[in-house]
From TrEMBL:
GO biological process, one term: adenine biosynthetic process
Major subcellular location class: cytoplasm
The keyword Nucleotide-binding appears for this protein: yes
Enzyme class: ligase
Recorded catalytic activity of this chain's protein: 2-formamido-N(1)-(5-O-phospho-beta-D-ribosyl)acetamidine + ATP = 5-amino-1-(5-phospho-beta-D-ribosyl)imidazole + ADP + phosphate + H(+)
Pathway it works in: Purine metabolism; IMP biosynthesis via de novo pathway; 5-amino-1-(5-phospho-D-ribosyl)imidazole from N(2)-formyl-N(1)-(5-phospho-D-ribosyl)glycinamide: step 2/2
Lineage start: Bacteria, Bacillati, Actinomycetota, Actinomycetes, Micrococcales
GO CC terms, sorted: cytosol
Protein name: Phosphoribosylformylglycinamidine cyclo-ligase
InterPro entries in the record: PurM-like_C_dom (IPR010918), PurM-like_C_sf (IPR036676), PurM-like_N (IPR016188), PurM-like_N_sf (IPR036921), PurM_cligase (IPR004733)
Keywords of this entry: ATP-binding, Cytoplasm, Ligase, Nucleotide-binding, Purine biosynthesis
PANTHER family according to UniProt: TRIFUNCTIONAL PURINE BIOSYNTHETIC PROTEIN ADENOSINE-3 (PTHR10520:SF12), TRIFUNCTIONAL PURINE BIOSYNTHETIC PROTEIN ADENOSINE-3-RELATED (PTHR10520)
Assigned EC number: 6.3.3.1
Length: 367
């Protein structure tokens, strides 16, 4: 007698009960991001957010951003540490919204995995929720998708999208930048979430595992690499609510230092960033040494210690540096915007389809 084949979702590798348990484990953390503007709680088909406050705007503009954290997730998976990757996601998404001067309103996340392990999914989402709470962003929804056969049992990837709002006449960008404006650099917490394909390649070439310890890393390599992305939104909103004259912001992510700053400068302007104004943290120096290369050669890949730039009016530079530093974001003056004509050979001009200004780094890094 031949047995009758059974076809079920569970036999196909999808565990809906595990998905439900993951939601239960994350509900409390998600709820902490909800204010009175959020309707419906957790589990609805769509998140609902009351935007009545936008009625007070003269001309409200919505700002939106979407991103992931790249191959940094491979290190989290290898070490079975999943509670930091969520902050990386929020940093990559929400800190892009503040660049235009917008205040974040809400965010959604998406996790694709080969197998739902409730505790793992909940750890990821708790990290997202903690960072959303810190940035004043409501986490109004998300999706966990199980993809057996496409992803390995312990593989996953994360992505997210957020929406913010800004008054039309308060939008930051190249149009506000003028000759003599000062470029303020804000320190990164480490690699953030860019350039990890190069990091993993360097370590593999040298036969270094994530659990190996390197003295200059202060312990296990993988733990140092998982240092969460610094969040800039809340401190920058406090500065923007003051009188510090910020004209443009640039988030230093993919593309490196010069290219990202060039994107927010007007065409015809240029900046020389003084490398001697900061010292890249040990993680960058160690990785460069392991690669047998220089710090300068990775300026288009890693942030090398700068996570965000502010372009500010000259008379506001000192106050901006002081306010950000006092709020936990070490900051310093790194250059000045000029519109005088000069030969721009060797400068990075524009990026990501933006025909912006020109930037190059000069001098040597501080020890």
């Amino acid at each position: 007698m031949t047995s009758t084949p059974t076809n079920s979702y569970a036999e196909a590798g999808v565990d809906t009960a595990a998905g439900d348990l993951a939601v239960e484990l994350m509900k409390a953390a998600v709820a902490k991001t909800h204010g009175p503007q959020v309707f419906g709680g957790v589990g609805g088909f769509a998140g609902l957010f009351d935007v009545s406050a936008l009625k007070a705007f003269e001309r409200p503009l919505l700002a939106t951003s979407t991103d992931g954290v790249g191959t940094k997730v491979a290190i989290a998976q290898a070490l079975d540490i999943h509670d930091t990757i969520g902050q990386d996601l929020v940093g990559m998404v929400v800190d892009d919204i503040i660049v235009v001067g917008a205040r974040p309103l809400f965010m959604t996340d998406y996790i694709a995995c080969g197998r739902v392990v409730p505790e793992r999914i909940a750890a990821i989402v708790r990290g997202i929720a903690r960072a959303c709470e810190e940035t004043g962003t409501a986490l109004v929804g998300g999706e966990t998708a199980e993809h057996p056969g496409l992803l390995g049992p312990d593989d996953y990837d994360v992505a997210g999208a957020a929406v913010g709002a800004v008054e039309a006449d308060a939008v930051l960008g190249p149009e506000r930048v003028t000759d003599g404006d000062v470029v303020v650099a804000m320190a990164s917490s480490g690699l953030h979430s860019n350039g990890f394909s190069l990091v993993r390649h360097i370590l593999a070439q040298r036969g270094i595992g994530y659990a190996d310890e390197l003295p200059d890393f202060g312990g296990a390599v993988g733990r140092a690499l998982l240092e969460p992305t610094r969040l800039y939104t809340a401190p920058l909103l406090r500065v923007l609510d003051g009188t510090h004259g910020i004209h443009a912001l640039s988030h230093v992510t993919g593309g490196g230092i010069a290219a990202n700053l060039a994107r927010v400068l007007p065409r015809g302007s240029w900046v020389e960033l003084d490398r001697s104004s900061w010292s890249p943290s040990p993680v960058f120096r160690v990785l460069s040494d392991l690669a047998g290369s220089t710090l300068e050669s990775s300026e288009g890949t890693w942030n090398l210690g700068i996570g965000m730039f502010a372009v500010v009016a000259a008379e506001s530079a000192d106050a901006t540096v002081a306010a950000l530093t006092a709020d936990g974001i070490p900051s310093w003056v790194a250059g000045t915007v000029s519109t005088s004509g000069r030969n721009l050979d060797g400068f990075e001009q524009g990026a990501k389809g933006v025909d912006g200004g020109a930037v190059r780094l000069v001098g040597g890094y501080a020890a």
